[in-house]
Amino acid sequence: MKKKISLSFILALATLQSLNAIEAPKIQKIEFIGMEAPKNIDEMSKMYTTAKVRLYTTDKDFTQHDLSYQTLFNVKDKIGTNTHPAGQLYNYKMEALLDPFKKPLISETPDSNSLLNIDGKLFLVNHFEYDPILSYGSSL
What we know:
Blueprint: H1 2-20, E1 29-33, H2 41-44, E2 52-56, E3 62-66, E4 106-107, E5 110-118, E6 121-128, E7 132-133
């Protein structure tokens, strides 16, 4: 049994080492291609994008990819070790705001994101609109 486990472990390490030898192409430039503004009520009432991105490996060679929306988390989700929902509203002292029933006041409308690079670490910051959800499920 010990020999089988050892051999499996060695084979797994060899496979990982060979995977590390594969290099991803170096991206020289990134170009974002925008989209037209929504033209009708149907387009204005849904979340979508027709924008694209081009990844250049040389000045002329690129691959083009469609952009899309991906849900990372919802406003009521608790992220990591945070005890409050992601959409929790706070006052200027970073104290959680509560609704009339002493439950968390949660912003229901993520508006945009910023990707910040701070000392080489990436942070995704969500910007929420102020329209809150009360604990019984309705908006103010």
